[in-house]
Amino acid sequence: MISRREEGCRRVAEGAGIIKRVHARMHTPAAWLAALVALAALAVLCIAPAAVSGQAPQAPPPDEHWATLQTPHFRITFPRRLEALGRRAGARAERAYGELAEAFVDPPSGRIDILVTDHQDVTNGYAQVHPSNRITIYARPPMDDLGLGYFDDWTELVITHELAHIFHLDRAGPLGGFLRSIFGRVPAPWPFFPNTGVPRWTTEGLATWYESYFSNAGRTEGTYHEMIVRTAELEGSFAGLGQASGDSPIWPGGTLAYAYGSRFFDHL
User: Fold this and answer.
1) Nearest 5°: CA angle at 215, between 152 and 132?
2) What are the Cα distances from residue 93, in Å, to 160, 204, 215, 233?
3) Which of 44, 126, 130, 235 could cysteine-pair with 187, CB 3.0–4.6 Å?
4) Three-class SS of the chain
5) What per-residue confidence (pLDDT) applies to 228?
6) 69 phi/psi in degrees, rounded to 5
7) 53 forms bridges with which residues in the sheet?
8) How far is the C-alpha of 239 from the C-alpha of 258, rounded, in Å?
9) What angle separates helix 29-53 from helix 4-21, to the nearest 10 degrees?
10) For residue 201, how far is the Cα from the chain centroid?
11) Residues of 200-212 as b/e, b for ≥16 C-beta within 10 angstroms?
12) How far apart are alpha carbons 267 and 261 in whole angstroms?
């Protein structure tokens, strides 16, 4: 059975294809405006169900004693008791920003929000490009994750990884930039955020490769991902492109996208 979200996303893709096909026929501002309104309406079909059915991470406690500091490119929010870690995150973020801006792509405009929290006892981080560019970092360093065992500075590694996501996923072409100026940061792929539609092994592999490239540690420099790929080859179970982007209850599970993607970019 196809869910409402899947049906909505399919319609968005169909609408985007229609706009591409009629591009050559659109010679008047009225035609352009009609096409843009149609695309925005189709996007709502995908966005609204996603807001209901999506599983967001547990929200930080609102009654925490929060503090915020600003750097040239970031706004870092943290519990007051983690002020030292918050300031360290700001310094690491500015360094990663400069490195990515020089070696990767042009940085996004505006300040990027970073939330540093320990309200969950997990080792993780995640990035979002809508409704704004923002990163959440969990303070707990890796202690029981084999894939993250080879690191020098957890704060540096996770911020570099998530910031690479922001640089990558925020990019849009002229049409996407124009549509964002009218409709805002619509959480949909082409033309608003076209890179959110690429395979997961590309997205995670790229960020994982950069986390190691700038830190001289990380998962690409470690042995765990190499072992996953080498074992698959020896056993005749090397994952295809579709499999490398997916998840599985069988080892190595969701690590596939990170391992195959980062090894691919390291090979390049």
Assistant:
1) 105
2) 7, 19, 13, 37
3) 130
4) CCCHHHHHHHHHHHHHHHHHHCHHHCCCHHHHHHHHHHHHHHHHHHHHHHHHHCCCCCCCCCCCCEEEEECCCEEEEEEHHHHHHHHHHHHHHHHHHHHHHHHCCCCCCCCEEEEEECCCCCCCEEEECCCCCEEEEECCCCCCCHHHCCCCCHHHHHHHHHHHHHHHHCCCCHHHHHHHHHHCCCCCCCCCCHHHHCCHHHHHHHHHHHHHHCCCCHHHHCCHHHHHHHHHHHCCCCCCHHHHCCCCCCCCHHHHHHHHHHHHHHHC
5) 95
6) -130, 155
7) none
8) 13
9) 160
10) 12
11) bbbbbbbbbbbbb
12) 10
8 A C-beta contact, residue 143 and residue 124: no
pTM of the model: 0.81
pLDDT at position 249: 86
